[in-house]
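Notes continue from the previous slide.

Worked example: a multi-chain complex. Inputs as given:
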Amino acid sequence: MDRLWAPWRGVYVSDAGAAAGCFLCAAAAGQDDQLVVAHDATTVTMLNRYPYNTGHLMVAPIDHVPDLLAAGDGGAAALMVAARRAMRALQDAMNPEGFNVGVNHGSAAGASIEHVHLHVVPRWGGDTNYMPVIGRTKVLPELLEATAARLRTAFAALT
Ligand SMILES: [Zn+2]
């Protein structure tokens, strides 16, 4: 059996690609998928458990890749394709007036986990007034589950 010597892969790949304690890996593997609303061959899309706004989605590669640079051109493109689908599903389900779409790269920029993810946050006029308030409020799981159900329906209806 041939073996490629690729020690850098060990940083990202362990236990068949899932990093212990990484909630995005767990979601991608179907181990903790209550908030997952969509997935494809290379990405998973889930509700943020601590949302900035109702419908706040996170789009991540299935592989435990630390950031956009490590994801490569293909991985980054796949994330953007999935993010666009997430925007369409949110548009259909919640009719937002705008979106914030972005990535925190590095701890200095606010990245808190080593599994790259793209935030897709639906916005409505005036929501900044209460966003800091709801951002600190514990969101009931039932509410997130209801939002997840709405979004799964919207994703399923996308062409
Ligand atoms: Zn991970």
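Summary box: Residues 144 and 150 are 10 Å apart (CA to CA). The pocket of zinc ion is lined by residues 19, 22, 24-25, 64, 115 (CB under 6 Å).
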